[in-house]
Amino acid sequence: MNLARFLALVALVLPGAALAHSANQSGERAFQRCYSCHSVQKGEKGLSGPSLDRLSKRPIAGDKAFAYSKAFQAFAARNRRWNPELLDRFLTNPEALIPGNQMGFFGLRKPEERAAIIAYLMADD
């Protein structure tokens, strides 16, 4: 799924006159469950997960301040960058996409919640 098709899906899922503003608000709200482990602030440290700042602009497992699991490193060797489709698969079921990863997260069932988080993470990129 390319970014244009993904944003079209977001437009269908997120009602409102200003899609970007709505997507950002909905995504930020949906991302609240991620803040206990991840940040979207550049250089923020001390969390149990890597920073997700500029996620699609850097290599997968590209936060040099974070010690990724061997499973995540192997996945990164096969996949260069996150894109909406790959993030959707990961957020649906992290263990299915990256068996043996150390993230204690079981996935999100609601497609609209995943779409909002993905749009939020990709917005700064």
UniProtKB/TrEMBL annotation:
Pfam families: Cytochrom_C (PF00034). It comes from the Bacteria. Keywords: Electron transport, Heme, Iron, Metal-binding, Signal, Transport. Residues 1-22 form the signal peptide. Residues 22-125 form the Cytochrome c domain. This is Cytochrome c. GO terms for molecular function: electron transfer activity; heme binding; metal ion binding.
